[in-house]
Amino acid sequence: MNAAEQANSIEFASKIATIVGLFKGEFPDLRVDLKPWANDRETRSWVDPDSIDIGFHFPGVSRLLSCRSLLVQIRLHPDAETHHPRVIGLDIAGFDHRGKQWTLSTIDNWAFIGESVPEATYGERLKQCCRQILTLFNADLA
Question: What percent helix, strand, coil does the chain show, rounded to 5?
Answer without folding.
Answer: 35, 35, 30
